[in-house]
Amino acid sequence: MREIAIIGIGQTKVHEHWGLSIRELATDAIFTAQKDSGRKNFDALFVGNMLSGLIDQQNNLGAVIADWVGFKGEAVKIETACSSGASAFRAGIMAVASGEIDSAMVVGVEKMTDAAPTDVTSALATAADSDWELEQGVSFVGLNALIMRRYIHEFGWKHEDFAPFSLNSHANAAHNPNARLPFAISPKQYTNSAMISAPINLMDASPTGDGAAATLIVPLDSVRGNKRAIQILGSGAATDTLSVHSRKKPLFLQAAYLAAKRAYTQAGITYEDVDFFELHDAFSIMSALSLEACGFAVQGQGPRLGLDNEITPKGGRIPICTRGGLKARGHPVGATGMYQLVEAVQQLRGECGETQVENAKIGMTQNIGGSGASIITHILKVP
Question: What's the whole-model pTM score?
């Protein structure tokens, strides 16, 4: 397998893009990535998306976007719920690393705000088990609330102990021009926020939105010496049961553990070598579970990292969500994994300004589909 790298990145602001269609959003990110790379062409197009068939009434999205950008080669859509972006990226990695193609454009895109909120909630719920969870009337946020409630009971935490995760994400998003919610919040705002599904309140949950993010993947040998090129060092993926109640350990993200372990092994590193972690904070409980599964905290102690100020870009032991994460950058579900990767490239290039992690050389991203059913981990490195 060939060593590979990201040479170009592009993204749109996560927003309510009333005037843009899903194909236009994707195209904006693709053209920006091409401009950033200095290359006009690519060999294949991989599209990460979850909801186009349910919300936009548009399937065959690979062909739709390829047509719009004037591309006539291979183009496919890949869907693994909220981890669709990272799954598309992994497909692009394998295609280029194998030598089958020499360049892959990967774009994650989602257009969510044109639909009514109730329709979006119903569409997002399809990431859960339709027979054993949805049939019982539980929503996606409801499932995460059940997980968080059990975690608090099992390990003795209080709801406010999760506040640092949200505070960190919002503080970082204030410096990200592409963030959906670019403002800081206070501990009081977190505590007094409206309850959605107890114990999850508004400040525990990420906002949806419209957005697209893209990367161009090429062989590393073709860009050696280019200071803007970032090496893809490791890629790991795993699945768990779709329904939470079927898991042997409902409070442990087994797929995250396996995906991270495989990525660490491929990269030849351990969690101790990671300088920052763009994790999937769709809900604050997922921040704690991801940190534990990936080795940064022992099980049941994830919130301690936030309380001890270990997750911030300035001086934190393991900075997370350095551009706002899902909580404040926003969560256009099928595009989220690609936003994480674009932001990791920005960190490793030293382009993050006020939220730049000093001397960042190795970064990790982790994208979660469902309530931990499909998880993909990537490790990037300054070559």
Answer: 0.98
